[in-house]
User: Fold these one by one.
Assistant:
Number 1:
Amino acid sequence: MLVVGLLLGATAVAADKPVLGVAEFRNQTSAGWWRGGVGWELSGMLSNELAGTEKFRVVERSKLENVLVEQDLGASGRVRPGTAAKIGQLTGAQYLVLGTVSAYEEKTQGTGGGISFGGISIGGRSDDAYIAVDLRVVNASTGELDFTRTVEARSGGYGLNLGLFKGGFGGNLGQYENTPAGKAIRAVLMEISEYLACVMVDKGSCVAEYKEKEQKRRDKTKS
């Protein structure tokens, strides 16, 4: 009976976790690392990061991708009204996470701090990358936007301590894993997962901290 009770308790805890589906990322920039397939690669990386927090249940990509294809078909007008696919019914997802890369900047500059030895120069160069993602979380039941935020991250060639990243790099993004671009991508996906964990699960004082951070971002943008 004790074992049964523990299993039921674990099931109840799992059932309380928000169920998320992460859609294919979109891009509005001229980032050189963006090419065919990267949108789903970012989706998969964020899905892994969200699942790694152990605060969400995440719909697998293959299941979600089929639903989104059906939704696009329904929106085309080629499906009888009232029969188009609905994300909440077909995947069980409570929320659909949408991400659009809205800004990306990268620069390389000399710093004057290089070391010359035997005619060979080492260092003296700084690589920086900045990325912004417009995040939207759609309630699958109501179709309303429950959470919206612009998430930013910046990285430098001298290193960035990102903690433990669970997303992994592969596919078209694999070659960028140890570059400033890769570091910025990892950082922004981690920031997204931590933000969603705060506003959707943890709540409490962390929400006020994110509101303050967002206000600082807005003030900086205006200035």
Number 2:
Amino acid sequence: PAGSLSAKSQDVPISELVPTHRQQRTTIVINQALERFHYRKVSLNDDFAGQIFETYIDALDPNRSFFLQRDVERFKRNVRRLDDDLTRGKLDSAFEIFRLYRQRVDERVKYALSLLEEGFDFDRDESYRFDRSEAKRVKTRTELDEIWRKRVKNDWLGLLLSKKEEDEIPELLRKRYE
């Protein structure tokens, strides 16, 4: 319709998510500017790199719904190298983390969509933790599947409570997840 706005995402294949020369150069310039001109005299060292790592992981997965504990532990092993890498404009670890994040998002969406075919038992007594930002990361995909089953069930229930017709709910959620 005229006057309506719609956003269309452009999916970049995971294999193409690699740092460009421009991004690498920009990283070097930003680091130099932080070290020379920031009012707090920031120094990119192991401690600051650890903070960058934690902030990056939390920004990608604030509700702890995508990464498994072992994913974060694997990436954390390289955090002491992060400051040296960033100083040289080497962004490989950041892009590796993001590629896995994209993979995990694709897996979760696929799983959520598969649940829409089954429907849900609302007579079952269970709870859903909406805010998982302070929760421990889960260790297994089975645990993650359970979180997502409850999430999709909660979304379904929310639409039921907002008076949506039950037969239109799967399509509404499919569009939301895709």
Number 3:
Amino acid sequence: MKAIYFSALLVLAASCSKSDSTPEDKTKVITTGTWKYDRSGMDFNLDGVAESDLPPGYLQSCDTDNLLTFNADSTGVVDEGLTKCDAADPQTVNFTWSFNADKTVINFPTAVISNVSGDVTVKKLTSTELD
């Protein structure tokens, strides 16, 4: 598993070796393996450090056990994990994503976890963390 941190709001984690990414290899890094939620917080002063937890109820446990897989063709799959928020929901849902030109922003046209959609700033991308 790997770690993901959406615009200082969500973090997903994994166990792989760490390495910094250049813009050229960020697609390779993000598309190798499956990403899982780890932690979340709010970064009010935009310094990359969460000053407080997200408000209660913003994320449900049925969202935080989801797994994300990014594919090199700008598609991906969200797996609902062990707990679904709605039992009638499918186990997996496809999504699309794209990097901007210098691969510092990921765009999600639709929500991938809870309310996370649109442009998400990439502060750090390694083999174990997307921050």
